[in-house]
Design a protein that fits this description.
single chain, about 325 residues, eight-stranded mixed sheet, two-stranded antiparallel sheet, binds 2-acetamido-2-deoxy-beta-D-glucopyranose
Length: about 325
């Protein structure tokens, strides 16, 4: 009896949809063809994400010396805004990494802990390439998150001691916009005003770091203050203020002490905000970044892209390993 009712209800609904579609066709409301897409944009952007040393699970999955990982959240973050991902495995020979750099339209530097050795050198080399490509007229955006942000400050100042200590491990925070800051053209440029307001009142961003830079030190350093505009600051557990979002003035480079990818895709810490507003924050950062990548004119050979995409690798679920 229950089944019979359900089926007849479905048939009834189907009948209504059918009547409507006939109405549209007979009145010729549908446009004759779709408008041509903007020829200056690349609608198939590819993002390179640099892998980080270790297995991402402090040895619970692998202790191999050469092992490196990319947290799935960064991959999905690029995908949610309409891009595909090529992993830039930092241990690969430089010539392979260079080939892969020519297959992508933008770069993500992830969070993590490694600040020296081969990893540091590879990040530094890729950062130089980002500058070179942009200087040569190719739009080539970079998003640097947490460790990525910290490494950029070390590389730009040529000072491995530029960072100060802060207490902001596994902590949700607000962001305070710098007074009179012009956000046009920055990562926050297309955020709804009401969401920007909420970010300064509600804890909508996730912090997880032991280092950072105070606004005073940042502004006092000519290398940093001439390269970047400070957009926001945040406050750690001891009420110490640090720079939390910066944007390069002459390059499509945005850097975050916080983690825009976590709100939607990370569940390891109960402190990560997952409210609808928090999800919107992630969405808007991802859309900003990939909209920059669509301006990249680099259109690599399709077959080489397919051979290098992250879909050639198997993901490993680490959520049950006590992360
Ligand atoms: C890695 O090493 C640690 C410490 O020796 C050990 O407890 C762990 O089981 C190892 N992991 C793997 C996957 O072998
Ligand atoms: C380390 O890993 C990379 C990438 O998988 C590989 O190309 C390289 O040959 C490995 N090196 C060693 C010494 O195993």
């Amino acid at each position: 009896m229950g089944n019979y009712l359900l089926i007849s209800f479905l048939l009834f609904v189907y009948g209504i949809i059918n009547a409507h579609s006939q109405l549209f066709v007979s009145n010729q409301i549908l446009p004759p063809s779709c408008p041509a897409p903007d020829p200056t944009l690349n609608y198939r952007p590819i993002i390179g994400i640099v892998s980080h040393p270790g297995d991402g699970a402090t040895g619970r999955l692998s202790n191999a010396t050469n092992v490196s990982y990319i947290a799935a959240s960064y991959v999905k973050f690029a995908e949610m805004a309409g891009a595909r991902v090529i992993p830039l495995i930092y241990t690969e020979p430089p010539e392979i990494l260079n080939q892969k750099l020519n297959l992508v339209n933008g770069i993500i530097f992830t969070g993590g802990w490694a600040k020296d050795g081969l990893y540091f050198d590879v990040i530094k080399g890729i950062f130089q390439k980002v500058l070179e490509k942009n200087d040569a007229g190719e739009r080539f955006p970079l998003l640097a998150i947490c460790l990525g942000y910290e490494l950029l400050t070390m590389i730009i100042t040529n000072d491995n001691n530029i960072l100060e200590e802060f207490s902001a491990a596994s902590q949700a925070s607000t962001v305070q916009f710098v007074e009179n800051v012009n956000i046009e053209g920055t990562v926050f440029g297309r955020f709804p005003r009401v969401l920007l307001k909420k970010m300064s009142i509600d804890c909508l961003v996730m912090q997880n770091h032991h280092f950072g830079i105070s606004p005073e030190r940042f502004q006092a350093n000519k290398d940093l203050s001439s390269f970047f505009r400070v957009l926001t600051t945040s406050t750690d557990e001891n009420n110490k203020v640090y720079v939390s979002t910066i944007q390069a003035t002459r390059y499509p480079i945005a850097a975050f002490q916080w983690h825009p990818e976590k709100n939607v895709f990370e569940w390891g810490s109960s402190r990560i905000p997952h409210s609808e507003d928090a999800i919107q924050v992630t969405t808007h950062v991802a859309n900003y970044f990939i909209s920059e990548a669509r301006k990249s004119s680099n259109k690599p050979v399709a077959r080489q892209v397919l051979d290098s995409l992250i879909y050639n690798y198997n993901p490993t679920y680490g959520g049950k390993e006590g992360l």
